[in-house]
Amino acid sequence: MSGKTLTRADLAEAVFQKVGLPRNESAEIVELVLREIVASLERGDPVKLSSFGSFGIRDKGERIGRNPKTGQEVPITPRRVLVFRASNIMKQRINEMLSRRKAAE
Predict the structure, then answer these.
(1) What domains, with CATH codes, occur in the chain?
(2) 31-56 per-position pLDDT tens digit
(3) How far is CA 54 from CA 32, 86, 88, in A?
(4) Which of 12, 38, 68, 84 has the fewest Cβ atoms surrounding its Cβ within 10 A?
């Protein structure tokens, strides 16, 4: 594993390199796409990116949890959480890449 985290700046640079738009326009496009994804999720709409995956919001109800240090039971308040489910195509590509790495070792 390379250990490098992909950032917004990296995405903007990739748009600049591959599409040829100026850097500031590339960064603006990345920001607009990310803002649209967030706005859709805020409205409660799922986001599906073909061959990549789906983002959605899941409501979690109130439940009883346990403090791992003390073992004391504590209530966990209801909340909404972001969920991501990778597409089968993405899973297959990642697994194939991992298989090739293991074979090369």
Answers:
(1) 8-104 (4.10.520.10)
(2) 999 999 999 999 999 999 999 999 99
(3) 18, 6, 11
(4) 68
